[in-house]
Amino acid sequence: MPNVHPTPSSALRAACLRGIALTHDGPQAVVAMSAEQHLLLPLPAAELARWQARVGQRVWLDLDTQPVRLQAEPLPGVRHD
To answer: What is the pLDDT of residues 18-38, one digit of tens each?
Structure first.
């Protein structure tokens, strides 16, 4: 998944990658969209280490895809607490 720079016309929404759950369906990202709204999104097993390194950081949700797709933050090291 390439890094993207969100634009006002895009359907990207900032969120925080809070953790990774290992389920019987495979790894899933635990993403906080707000203090009370969380999503579980499937992660490819081959990219698990890459996403584990981003736990606690801002990520982008592509709301135009079904299921919603997780994309990396273009500025590494930015924390979204």
So the answer is: 999 999 999 999 999 888 889
